[in-house]
């Protein structure tokens, strides 16, 4: 009997395995499902296979093979994204960097840490602390997200108000372009005016221009001792007033807000209540408190807010354990909402544009989602809001998403009027692709497509994402 003919892609995969005997290739159904999706859970994963290189050279060889055989490649880090940027649902090869997860070096003079792209953010934090320094980008998914993924989406997190986004802390990158060529970008320099900075072009490109394989990260001095305070606020207007008050009087490290609905979910998920009574809005803020004067200033700001009617109640942590418990009220929200299959919007505006936008969008969401539970939280100190719509029991997934997408069109139009962005820190991916024009002009998008063509001439890197 004649053996059945292999499909071209399967035959090409066998060739890849023979060409790179040290490359780990996974094809088991459970592996395809695990590596083929991210936190969106909206697409059925269907990758060709999972390639896990251990070296830069192996990763380059995989991309050269992909170009030869016309195989699309989806870069994969921790897959904690919420925009479908790491989804492989069309027979793509997933290139996971999880084996490339080492610290490669520390420079005490430049205060930089060089790491492979698959290293977890938590491991970077630990490595920096071992040298008496910090890597200041931080968010709740620190234990599972990777540095490469953080770079691909220019991740922000809870301390952007003090330290900025990932972009500010990238001194240099090694990136494999779509044709397999290795680029060394900026080489850790502080000043470099020798032409276009391709490092910054790569940051936030969602794996569509190249695959980050190594990063040199800038480190910082540890911040002074801080205190954490939980505030209960009576209304949305008070949120901006308290932010302005605290920013003027204190050196803020973080200023995060969430609603009573968010609190209810995170308490049900195991967090501990810190304030009595019910309040519509809450803030967790962290600020420098190195001496008695700074601590007195915080109490004075709190009392001023109470006297103005902007703050209804509050609590200040008296220990590291209490500070962690207060932070859990904010950082535990995403995990607590996951069982409800939320439809997520991650939006950004200038801080000064927030009040007018919030007035408009609250009315829009109230009209559009009368029967849905809407959970608000986010980084008010940098204009980033997370809007989560929870799926009611009994409503089919497809119908739920269809209803939510209708309102996202209205949301995108409102953001365009107020000069905002449909994606603050999770990227465009598949989810936000239809709304890119609300944030970018036609001329900008045309230039972006041209850049993509130069970096990835055969269009194999994360196709279908972003555009």
Automatic annotation (TrEMBL):
Catalytic activities: (R)-2-hydroxyglutarate + A = 2-oxoglutarate + AH2
Domain FAD-binding PCMH-type, first and last residues per copy: 43-222
Annotated GO MF terms: (R)-2-hydroxyglutarate dehydrogenase activity; FAD binding; metal ion binding
UniProt EC number: 1.1.99.39
Pfam families per UniProt: FAD-oxidase_C, FAD_binding_4
Keyword Disulfide bond: no
Entry keyword Flavoprotein: yes
InterPro entries: FAD-bd_oxidored_4_C (IPR004113), FAD-bd_PCMH (IPR016166), FAD-bd_PCMH-like_sf (IPR036318), FAD-bd_PCMH_sub2 (IPR016169), FAD-linked_Oxase-like_C (IPR016164), FAD-oxidored/transferase_4 (IPR051264), Oxid_FAD_bind_N (IPR006094), Vanillyl_alc_oxidase_C-sub2 (IPR016171)
PROSITE patterns hit by this protein: FAD_PCMH (PS51387)
GO biological process: respiratory electron transport chain
Keyword terms of this UniProt record: FAD, Flavoprotein, Metal-binding, Oxidoreductase, Zinc
The family this protein is said to belong to: Belongs to the FAD-binding oxidoreductase/transferase type 4 family.
Self-association and partners: Homodimer.
PANTHER family: D-2-HYDROXYGLUTARATE DEHYDROGENASE, MITOCHONDRIAL
Name under which the protein is recorded: D-2-hydroxyglutarate dehydrogenase
């Amino acid at each position: 009997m004649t053996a059945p003919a292999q499909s071209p892609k399967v035959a090409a995969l066998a060739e890849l395995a023979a060409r790179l005997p040290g490359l780990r290739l996974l094809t088991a159904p459970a592996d395809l499902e695990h590596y083929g999706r991210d936190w969106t859970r909206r697409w059925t994963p269907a990758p060709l296979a999972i390639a896990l290189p251990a070296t830069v050279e192996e990763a380059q060889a995989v991309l050269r093979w992909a170009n030869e055989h016309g195989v699309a490649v989806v870069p994969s880090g921790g897959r904690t994204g919420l925009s479908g940027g790491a989804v492989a649902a069309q027979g793509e090869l997933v290139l996971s960097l999880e084996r490339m997860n080492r610290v490669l070096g520390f420079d005490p003079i430049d205060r930089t840490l060089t790491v492979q792209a698959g290293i977890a953010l938590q491991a970077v934090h630990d490595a920096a602390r071992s040298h008496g320094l910090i890597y200041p980008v931080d968010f709740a998914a620190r234990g599972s997200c990777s540095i490469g993924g953080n770079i691909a989406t220019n991740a922000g997190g809870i301390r952007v108000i003090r330290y900025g986004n990932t972009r500010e802390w990238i001194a240099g990158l090694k990136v494999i372009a779509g044709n397999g060529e290795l680029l060394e970008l900026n080489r850790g320099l502080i000043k470099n005016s020798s032409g276009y900075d391709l490092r910054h072009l790569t940051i936030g490109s969602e794996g569509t221009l190249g695959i980050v394989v190594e990063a040199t990260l800038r480190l910082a001095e540890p911040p002074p001792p801080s205190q954490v305070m939980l505030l209960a606020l009576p209304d949305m207007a008070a949120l901006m007033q308290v932010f302005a008050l605290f920013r003027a009087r204190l050196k803020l490290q973080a200023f995060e807000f969430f609603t009573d609905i968010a609190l209810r979910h995170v308490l049900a998920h195991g967090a501990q209540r810190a304030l009595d009574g019910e309040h519509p809005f809450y803030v967790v803020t962290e600020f420098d408190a190195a001496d008695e004067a700074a601590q007195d200033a915080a109490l004075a700001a709190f009392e001023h807010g109470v006297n103005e009617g902007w703050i209804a109640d509050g609590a200040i942590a008296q220990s590291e354990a209490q500070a962690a418990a207060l932070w859990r009220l904010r950082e535990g929200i995403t995990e607590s909402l996951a069982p409800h299959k939320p439809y997520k919007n991650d939006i950004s505006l200038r801080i000064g544009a927030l009040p007018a936008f919030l007035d408009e969008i609250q009315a829009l969401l109230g009209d559009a989602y009368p029967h849905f539970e809407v959970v608000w939280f986010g980084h008010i100190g940098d204009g980033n809001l997370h809007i989560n719509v929870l799926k009611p029991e009994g409503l089919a997934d497809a119908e739920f998403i269809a209803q939510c997408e209708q309102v996202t069109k209205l949301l995108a139009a409102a953001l365009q009027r107020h000069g905002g962005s449909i994606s603050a820190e999770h990227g465009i991916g598949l989810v936000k692709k239809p709304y890119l024009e609300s944030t970018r002009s036609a001329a900008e998008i045309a230039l972006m497509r041209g850049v993509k063509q130069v970096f990835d001439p055969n269009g194999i890197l994360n196709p279908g994402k972003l555009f």
